[in-house]
């Protein structure tokens, strides 16, 4: 059960995933990075079926990188998200569908706007201001609906995320000890620690 | 030709349980005699775990304890050696560590055939890599090969939870690969029905900067405690140390004897009333 959610402002997207790899009743690894960097200004967080997650991420990562190399230009977040959705849709009714849930976050250097796309394992896609995958949505959507505004600042988003952590800590049965927090904005992608929130 | 056919058709093959149809000119041909009372569905039912595998895949024995951890001088790999078939112990001397090549080891948990076959295939691929690239394969690449191999069979019933341990240019390497397609790197893993017990010992005593003797002791104790509590683990402790120069195996130890070694206060006596007494503390 992975925690996976993200919030976007006008010029940034901040994404959060937990760091645990669990197998039945065991914690196998607690410092796993569940995000996949696609280019300098686009990344996606991935959850779902073990095996499918790593294989699909690597496939998309390779193809996005190939485009950048061939065309000396990165795909924009919207182009990336639509490409990913297309690949997932093609795989869906094939011999090997991928059961992965994604949040694609990016900053478009052309239009100077941030973008967040929610894509689920059935390859439904929506461009959203904030989103979550998995059980954490049941707890976090209410908080995000209440606190979010379209002109939220990075500090405002950080405060909102802290509130999200509080809700999960208080009410969710799984105690997530650590999270991978990534921000993408005009200057690229960077990782924040929980203390920097 | 017709006369020949009639002659053959007229042969009485009934002593072999074969019956000819003499009505037609054509040769009826022999028919198969099946084993008496054969009922394929009932036969397979014994081996199919219908409750947990709704696709009725063959029931795989998962009873095992395997562990591996990295430390400053390499990787320690330790396993038990029990194989169970339902409630019966099929063997107490199974080799659950697979020697892929002189510097790579794999462990076996899940289906024995799946593990040993695919790790042997991995050994072949690693050798081919060496021949093509004139260098040893890294642990990351070897484990990735195995992960990609089994990913192709995902959902088709392979059962494999294995750890690939070795030493390459980056130092000690350890990956967990399973038949779900998962591949993760970490310093410490335990896999199998007894893994939770082994984790109990490992998590409380493991340190990266242990000396070899201490590392071996922690591994031995972890397997011992797992075999003590898990019915499906037991037999002997097999231990390997993967160092820069390759792996080396250690003498085998029976977990039954380890019980008395770790509990010196408990001694067997010949008394009929209480065959097992605790000796008074000196």
Task: Characterize the structure shown.
The complex is a heterodimer of chains A (197) and B (282). Chain A is of the alpha+beta class and 197 residues long. Chain A has 4 helices and 12 strands. In chain A, the strands form 3 sheets. Chain A has a 5-stranded antiparallel beta sheet, covered by helices on one side. Chain A has a 5-stranded antiparallel beta sheet with strand order 5-6-7-8-9, with helices on one face. In chain A, a hairpin with a 4-residue loop joins strand 7 and strand 8. In chain A, helix 3 runs antiparallel to helix 4. The longest helix of chain A has 20 residues, at 52-71. Chain A is globular, with a radius of gyration of 16 Å. The two termini of chain A are 24 Å apart. Chain B has 282 residues and is of the alpha+beta class. Chain B has 7 helices and 15 strands. Chain B has helices at 2-10, 40-45, 112-133, 139-151, 195-205, 212-229, 255-262; strands at residues 66-71, 74-79, 83-85, 88-91, 97-101, 104-107, 161-168, 171-178, 183-185, 188-191, 236-243, 246-249, 253-254, 266-268, 276-278. In chain B, the strands form 4 sheets. In chain B, strands 1, 2, 10, 11, 12 and 13 form a 6-stranded antiparallel beta sheet that branches. Chain B has a 5-stranded antiparallel beta sheet with strand order 5-6-7-8-9, covered by helices on one side. The radius of gyration of chain B is 27 Å and the shape is flat. Chain A: It is an enzyme of class 3 (hydrolase). Chain A: This is Proteasome subunit beta type-4. Chain A: Keywords: Hydrolase, Proteasome. Chain A: Its EC number is 3.4.25.1. Chain A: It comes from Coemansia aciculifera.
